[in-house]
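Lecture 7 notes: from sequence to structure.

We start with a single chain of 142 residues. Read the sequence below before looking at the structure.
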Amino acid sequence: MKKFKIVIDTNVLISALRSRKGASFKLFSLLDSNKFILNISVPLLLEYESIAIRELDKLNLTEEDINDFLDYICTIGNKCKIYYLWRPYLKDIKDDFVLELAFNSESDFIITYNKRDFKKIAEFGINVLNPKEFIEIIEVIK
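Now the structure, written as tokens:
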């Protein structure tokens, strides 16, 4: 069975933290399923933390809950470096490090709700899916 390599955009993480319903939460509940490899980097984790802490009042979680979850992601994630070598590339420059992480880690997919922000990446061999689309793919593969 092929294990897909993925990068999960921050908007998917925040969606999963907001509600236990939906594809975002299901995707994060599958982190230890051995169905895919989650690629992470220091800049991505810092963004996860920054946005989650900023949204804390909407998440019904404590800062300790957020830190524990991010520690878990650090434990199971495949740690990759990015070097900021080819910026800016995307329309939203805040997404460039996500693309660079996906490229450097040879990821198959970027999982995001902002697919339009990653329109130009097909030439890198990286596909963009939302969480529901990705879950449908990995559920077909046994």
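The chain has seven helices and five strands. Keep this in mind for problem set 3.
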